[in-house]
Amino acid sequence: MNTNIQGNSISFVQQRRDDIANEKLELFQPTDLSISHIDRPSTCKYSAASTALVVVDVQPEYWSYCPEVRKDFPNFPRNISRTISSCRKQGVPIIWIRADYRYNCSPWLRQFERLRGEGNAGQIPYNSASPSDVEWEDFARPMENEIVIPKHSFSAASKTALLDVLKAANIQTVLVCGLITSVCVHHSCYSIFEAGFQVILVEDSCADRGIERHKAVIELYGDYMYDVISSNDLKFNDPVLVSDKLFWITSRNLGDRHRDDGSTSNCLDEDECSHSMSRSTSRTASLESFSSLCDRVM
């Protein structure tokens, strides 16, 4: 009698384990990547007066020199140009992030090279040019009064001036776009989100090495760490007159970065930020005429 009960118990437990295993298999079936995350309307609200756009790594290394990215995202240049143009028209400040990976300031590179091996060839700009000499894509390049911040890791906010710049300008919402969705764009969104900002990913203004990677990131983290919108849905609650511009932190009031040849650049790194922010905080995020404010700064 006891033997039968024990045998039945073992059979029941084994059957339950099999059922659970089957349930897990069904639970983790691949999602339908043909369905876009942005088919679900976003409910996020944001104001032009307290929003900034962060453009991540739109460099030839990740677009012109990456046919696998261009193949799956032929509309990326048009979409990101639309996003940048919309923000400029509304006076939303734009911060440009560029990858500057070097062995002396990017200690992770050696491990990355070990893990990737030959598969890493041509995927990151080793010994990249000076931040002041960076190349930009024709469809997305900074204007003279827009900040360029070099980063030495995947995140735009790791050991850079980005978070200090955003806080100094009283920014609450950060729009993010650029390259590559599953790597530097996502890591940047994550870091900005952790710092307490509302993060909005402009999905069609991002691209990756394959549509599956791009969509997988959106499905995993959209509505979890950040809202997701498209460039066509970029609408601000308090539109600013096109003739007005948001006074932003330029090279003239952040402190010029002096090069060895005596010229200057508006490219910022973390060390320069702490000194220059104290002089610029009270002059940022004002909707007065850009030209009149510049006259006062000068």
TrEMBL record:
Keyword hit for Hydrolase: yes
Any one GO molecular function term:
hydrolase activity
Task: Note the InterPro entries from the entry.
Answer: Isochorismatase-like_dom (IPR000868), Isochorismatase-like_hydrls (IPR050272)
Q: Which CDD domains match?
A: cysteine_hydrolases
Residue stretches in coiled coil: none
Q: Which residues form the Isochorismatase-like domain?
A: 51-232
Keywords carried by this UniProt record: Hydrolase
The protein's matches in PANTHER family, at most eight in alphabetical order, are given as: ISOCHORISMATASE HYDROLASE (PTHR43540:SF1), PEROXYUREIDOACRYLATE/UREIDOACRYLATE AMIDOHYDROLASE-RELATED (PTHR43540)
Q: What is this protein called?
A: Isochorismatase hydrolase
Q: What organism is the protein native to?
A: Nitzschia inconspicua
Lineage, broadest ranks: Eukaryota, Sar, Stramenopiles, Ochrophyta, Bacillariophyta
